[in-house]
Amino acid sequence: MAGGELDRAMQYLAKLPGLGPRSARRAILHLMKRRESLMIPLAEALAEAARAVRPCSTCGNLDTVDPCGICTDPRRDPHTICVVEDVADVWALERAAAFGGRYHVIGGVLSALDGVGPDDLNVDTLVARASDPAVTEVILAMNATVDGQTTAHYIADRLAPTGVRVSRLAHGVPVGGELDYLDDGTLAQALRARQAV
Amino acid sequence: MAGGELDRAMQYLAKLPGLGPRSARRAILHLMKRRESLMIPLAEALAEAARAVRPCSTCGNLDTVDPCGICTDPRRDPHTICVVEDVADVWALERAAAFGGRYHVIGGVLSALDGVGPDDLNVDTLVARASDPAVTEVILAMNATVDGQTTAHYIADRLAPTGVRVSRLAHGVPVGGELDYLDDGTLAQALRARQAV
Ligand SMILES: [Zn+2]
Ligand SMILES: [Zn+2]
């Protein structure tokens, strides 16, 4: 009865993490009441982001340019690469303003349960980048979860032949905690006290 | 660093009820990973709904046609009007498939706190509809909140001169509800309105 257009928008909204059918219904009514100020601008921003934003072919970060703005920023240290699971972690570290090097987004963690194996992660490209003599250190900033730490060990093993120095974030990241949930101070502390692997 | 397009989409998503900045970040990354299957379809569905869906000028329900499909459905009882606060309540009653008449969406409740007065609600149009001799009953289906009940009393007073029969939803124990979890007011109401078996 809502009209096929509303139903379709609701069904898509309900697929977003944290939203279910009920909150999608509330969201679409909220949007319909703010047609000009929110609904149309959101639709346009989503369409424009879908069109213009792409993963950086060097590091996996999302940007409208490739390589991304971080990879090409001459003020950023080209000797240090911080390896993260996801783009959300790049954003968390950038918000903390605690890291001045470059990133590498591997795109997940090894997980037998979820069927994620080494070939599903961007590790080959990391090994290639780390083989450049200009790169002197790789910081493994995986989440402090079992899968995150398993993945960090796997990456450290893969990087060993390159001779690059490999470090990880200091404990201070709560066990079981995810980077994206941390306050900026904790994140900055953990980065400063990073340890050789 | 996310690119202005992603930031803008995130800021709009963060304005949806139930989403904040953090869940908006998760949502936009979820969408970017499903560009073709979810992000672009969602953007198109929102744009299309914003373009095509309008409030029914008779009852306030949302539809692509005006009057809406419920108002013009010849199978629905034209003698009974169910008054609800919001379109979400129309959808809830339609899902329950418990009502075969027509609706009237007043668009909120009287609230001194939120500065909502009688002129902000679609009550004049309800009184006009109820004045049609073909309409024999108006069911007030406001939420069982203080503001909802205040609003129901106000509407009942406004309808009195039309002579139409005015009823409200029964209060009681929700189907499947456990007494132990119910608030005292509901329990007392359910007891007072007890029915012979
Ligand atoms: Zn990059
Ligand atoms: Zn209608």
Automatic annotation (TrEMBL), chains A, B:
Gene3D superfamilies per UniProt: 3.40.1360.10, 6.10.250.240, RecR Domain 1
Pfam families referenced in this protein's UniProt entry, alphabetically: RecR_C (PF21175), RecR_HhH (PF21176), RecR_ZnF (PF02132), Toprim_4 (PF13662)
Keyword Metal-binding tagged: yes
InterPro entries, sorted: DNA_Rcmb_RecR, Rcmb_RecR, Rcmb_RecR_Znf, TOPRIM_dom, TOPRIM_RecR
A Gene Ontology molecular function term of the record: DNA binding
Span of zinc fingers (C4-type): 56-71
Gene Ontology biological-process entries: DNA recombination; DNA repair
Domain of life of the source: Bacteria
Span of domain Toprim: 79-174
UniProt keyword list: DNA damage, DNA recombination, DNA repair, Metal-binding, Zinc, Zinc-finger
NCBIfam families the UniProt entry points to: recR
UniProt function note: May play a role in DNA repair. It seems to be involved in an RecBC-independent recombinational process of DNA repair. It may act with RecF and RecO.
PANTHER family: RECOMBINATION PROTEIN RECR
Sequence similarity: Belongs to the RecR family.
Protein name: Recombination protein RecR
Source organism (scientific name): Thalassobaculum fulvum
